[in-house]
């Protein structure tokens, strides 16, 4: 008789697909209901029997349920706030794009290292914006200002927009808009697999969809509440077959015992799983793990058992754009990571392009 270890048993049991996000509580700004998208979302909320409340501002949710900070944080990650985006001045989004296009803020994922931990501070709930028409009009102005240059917009700077697409439909609108803009390009990155609604859109190759991937060790230990690696890769194949330019972000690249095997396996698995169409126009972005002192304090509070290494003594200090020092790997480790992963990328994808390592 073969005795199965718990790991082998888990590997042999078919796993349920990662489900679509259904919030546990929804807040609406009253103004949001005067937009068709706001009305549609209200209908969706009622159809799903989700409790909802009204709020004066999507930036000030003060009565979240939950005892204590940690419980409130967990509930906030399952809370949706539907509002009107007032700030239509877009932030810069280097090195991935020219501007961040704001269609959502916040995410239900629980990635320990996520920079939203600090940038969203006390507002970890998920905000979605109903005035996509205004957001698109603002994007059009940015494109016109920069003509004849091409202007690129990143839709995933402050959230994972694919994870709420079944509620908002906003990515579909942006993709359709950008398809008609000779000088406009869209890109977004995701850790989810629900690409189905985007596959039939006429995108005109103006939107690049990227999947965030990592070594198995990183996904297992630091990315709870996101889609599994296999699901992301299957979705990447669907996206490539639908003719979208495809990309992968390997981030955060983490130095751990066995990192070479882990990252070699990652690239080998990608090469094995992707259809031939995927290799035609494929980009890679590489981002090494970094943290600030503020992020470290927040992460240790929210994920007290995390194995994420954040030892300042082992890191190199680098001046950050937002006025805070960040801690990256020392040069020797950075170079080893970059060279090793670059070699593996070109070994499996000779026609691939590396956009940056940071
Ligand atoms: S999926 Fe992306 S945005 Fe969401 S928590 Fe993870 S890293 Fe952050």
From TrEMBL:
Name under which the protein is recorded: Spore photoproduct lyase
Superkingdom, natural source: Bacteria
Keyword DNA-binding: no
GO MF annotation terms: 4 iron, 4 sulfur cluster binding; DNA photolyase activity; S-adenosyl-L-methionine binding
Enzyme Commission no: 4.1.99.14
Keywords per UniProt: Lyase
A GO cellular component annotation in the UniProt record: endospore-forming forespore
Alphabetized NCBIfam families for the sequence: photo_TT_lyase
Keyword presence, Lyase: yes
């Amino acid at each position: 008789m073969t005795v199965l270890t718990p790991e082998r048993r888990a590997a042999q049991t078919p796993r349920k697909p990662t489900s679509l996000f259904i919030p546990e509580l929804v807040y609406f700004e009253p103004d949001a209901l005067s937009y068709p998208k706001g009305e549609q979302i209200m209908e969706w909320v009622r159809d799903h029997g989700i409790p909802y409340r009204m709020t004066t501002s999507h930036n000030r949710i003060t009565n979240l349920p939950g005892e204590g900070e940690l419980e409130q944080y967990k509930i906030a990650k399952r809370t949706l706030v539907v509002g009107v985006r007032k700030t239509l001045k877009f932030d810069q989004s280097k090195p991935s794009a020219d501007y961040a296009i704001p269609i959502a803020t916040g995410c239900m994922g629980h990635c320990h290292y996520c920079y939203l931990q600090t940038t969203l501070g006390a507002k970890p709930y998920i905000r979605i914006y109903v005035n996509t028409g205004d957001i698109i009009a603002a994007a059009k102005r940015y494109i016109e200002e920069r003509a004849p240059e091409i202007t690129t917009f990143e839709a995933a700077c402050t959230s994972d927009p694919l994870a709420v697409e079944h509620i908002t439909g906003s990515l579909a609108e942006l993709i359709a808009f950008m398809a008609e803009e000779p000088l406009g390009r869209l890109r977004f990155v995701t850790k989810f697999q629900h690409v189905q609604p985007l596959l039939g859109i006429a995108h005109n190759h103006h939107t690049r969809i990227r999947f965030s991937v990592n070594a198995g060790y990183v996904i297992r230990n630091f990315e709870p509440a996101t889609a599994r690696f296999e699901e992301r890769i299957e979705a990447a194949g669907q996206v490539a077959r639908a003719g979208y330019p495809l990309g992968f972000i390997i981030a955060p690249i983490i130095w751990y015992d066995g990192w070479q095997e882990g990252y070699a396996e990652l690239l080998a698995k990608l090469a094995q799983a992707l259809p031939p169409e995927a290799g035609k126009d494929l980009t890679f972005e590489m981002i090494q793990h970094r943290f600030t002192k503020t992020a470290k304090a927040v992460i240790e509070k929210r994920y007290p058992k995390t194995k994420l290494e954040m030892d300042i003594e082992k890191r190199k200090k680098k001046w950050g754009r937002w006025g805070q020092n960040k801690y990256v790997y020392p040069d020797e480790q950075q170079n080893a990571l970059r060279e090793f992963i670059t070699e593996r990328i070109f070994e499996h994808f000779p026609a691939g392009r590396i956009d940056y390592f940071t």
